User: Fold this.
Amino acid sequence: MTPVASPRSVRITGWGRYAPAQVLTNADLERMVDTSDEWIVSRTGIRERRVAAAHETSASMGAVAGLRAIRTAGLDPDDIDVIVVATLSPDYWMPSTAALVKEAIGNTRAAAFDVAAACSGFVYGYATASAYIASGMARHVLVIGTELLTRFLDYRDRGTCILFGDGAGAVVLSGSDEPTAPVGIELTTDPQGAYMIWLPAGGSKAPSSFETISQGQHKIRMEGKETYRFATRTLASTGLAAVAKAGWTPGDVDLIIPHQANIRIIEAVAKGLDLPMDRFFVNVDRYGNTSAASVPIALAEAVNSGRVKPGDKLVFIAFGAGFTSGAVALEWTADPARGPIGEASVSPEDIHVRQPVDWDSVDPIPPALAEILARPLPVALDLSDVAPGEPAHPAQSVR
Ligand SMILES: CC(C)(COP(=O)(O)OP(=O)(O)OC[C@H]1O[C@@H](n2cnc3c(N)ncnc32)[C@H](O)[C@@H]1OP(=O)(O)O)[C@@H](O)C(=O)NCCC(=O)NCCS
Assistant:
């Protein structure tokens, strides 16, 4: 990474997303755990989520979304000075997923590292990238949120396995000498919620052992009600703080892109900010909770489907394990027409993540998902946003 000149204003110049083709519907889950489509839709707004194929990883999905964002920005991979990957489902503990992404997208010169802030990870990564650019340390930073959560779920726990899905989203942030509207960023962490969403084993506190595996301690655990309370309490106040730092009031905001965890949480934030639901972009019905990937996937869909135009005031809001939360208020400056061009220019087959040598690969697919992943893939692409309560989308592929 080569330091660049004086402090600059920061703007989004590229955006991209990737969602694996295989769809896991509520009807599929009805066959796996004691649940129902009616319960899942009424309590969460989720109708379906994506499941990564056996050959996919967080790095491979993140690299597709990242390269699409670079192409949308009209840049080459080597124009990127820093790669920040937000993920709670990295390919490995080490090396970083960002290091694998760097090679897979063909970048030879960026500094690359991961950010761990769970579902707020993309917003934390955005804030980090923004600081690198504003300080003059970097000109172009790639921020990726990528998650492969379906390999970390207990498909006997109906309280968690219905919520999460796989995917990746990315933005390129670039420095500009032209002044831009003020940006507001707010980040919070409340360790009181440290054990409300957690993955107990595999770290230095509880290294992997026969016992941790047999006790299912390598799967995500969650106190749903407490998490819900934290989210509804915190999201609106974090969003309000970012809006105030930008010098706006909530009524000035054109579109809020919230973390897509649960439609009821988004509705509570709308109430807290006294804004109608049509100011919120919603795609939780089609992807479920993709953690750090959810905001950048939603952003790319919002822009590519015509919901965002230059001059619009946007707010990203997220919360997650930690408890963390974060919000960014910014003015959109890029040409939305570039998104579909960038998306079409990168096929998942273009991406090759380095494989370990001398390693007999294990089968990564949880047994509960084997049947779903063996069936034919759905096709067709529709970028339209769907309000909860509308009829289910046909199965879609975002490739
Ligand atoms: C998980 C969540 C949807 C549960 O909804 P809820 O209204 O709080 O439901 P409860 O946990 O109170 O459970 C109510 C009942 O439904 C049952 N239930 C839980 N999951 C169920 C499922 N998938 N299907 C059917 N019933 C279910 C419970 O066992 C309970 O039954 P009981 O009354 O007989 O004990 C909700 O708490 C939530 O969204 N929390 C936030 C989670 C989140 O966003 N996490 C990610 C943060 S980034």
User: Anything to note?
Assistant: DSSP finds twelve helices and 13 strands in the chain. The chain has two domains: 9-180+335-374, 184-331. Residues 35, 39-40, 43-44, 119, 158-159, 162-163, 197, 222, 224-225, 227-228, 231, 261-262, 289, 320 surround coenzyme A (CB under 6 Å). Residues 184-331 form a domain with the Peroxisomal Thiolase; Chain A, domain 1 fold (CATH 3.40.47.10).
